[in-house]
Amino acid sequence: MVNKWLGKIIEFRAIILISIIFIYFLTIGIKGKLKTYLLDHYAIEIPARVINEKNFWGNSPVSHTFSYSYEFSVDGKRFKADSRNKTLKVGNHITIEYLPAYPTFSRISQNSQTHKK
User: Fold this and answer.
1) What does residue 90 show for φ and ψ, rounded to 5 degrees?
2) Which pLDDT score, from 0 to 100, does residue 29 have?
3) What is d(CA 1, CA 4) in angstroms, rounded to the nearest whole number?
4) What is the tens place of the pLDDT at every residue in 54-75?
5) Which keywords does the record carry (predicted)?
6) What is the distance between the terminal CA atoms of the chain, rounded to a whole angstrom?
7) CA 93 – CA 71 distance, rounded (Å)
8) Low-confidence residues in the chain, pLDDT < 50
């Protein structure tokens, strides 16, 4: 009897764990698609500056590949994001797109041209 209940508890925990993992990855996918959709339709372009904050990529302990972050201001408040562009240098001026209702949703504009200091 105890073994039967123990088996059911373990089975229930496994189902819960698998469900949580599934929901986590589903949420990540939906957030990415939502971010892209919102930026494609409602973004505003503003200037930004590349700052000295490195973001190391996947296997960076081996290859040491990284990109710098960029910084921009909205209504006097500063925001930072990873440029995901390894060719940018600190001090470059770029154009970014951000979502006015949620400025942390930002990306480098497809129309952006890099300008030195």
Assistant:
1) -55, 130
2) 84
3) 5
4) 998 877 567 788 999 999 999 9
5) Membrane, Transmembrane, Transmembrane helix
6) 75
7) 10
8) none
d(CA 50, CA 32): 23
Shared-domain flag, residues 81 and 69? yes
Q: Rounded mean pLDDT of the chain?
A: 89
**pLDDT recorded at residue 54:** 94
Tracing tokens 């296997």 back to the chain, one arrives at 59
As a whole number of angstroms, the distance between CA 41 and CA 96 comes to 14
Q: Which two tokens stand for residue 96?
A: 């970014």
pLDDT score recorded for residue 5: 74
- pTM higher than 0.90: no
Domain span at 103: 45-108
For residue 84 the two structure tokens come to: 């995901």
Two tokens at 31?
A: 């957030």
Number of domains in the chain: 2
Quick one: CA torsion of 70, 72, 78, 82, rounded to 10 degrees? -20
| Statement to judge: residues 61 and 94 lie in one domain | yes
Quote the CA–CA distance of 104 and 98 in Å, as a whole number: 7
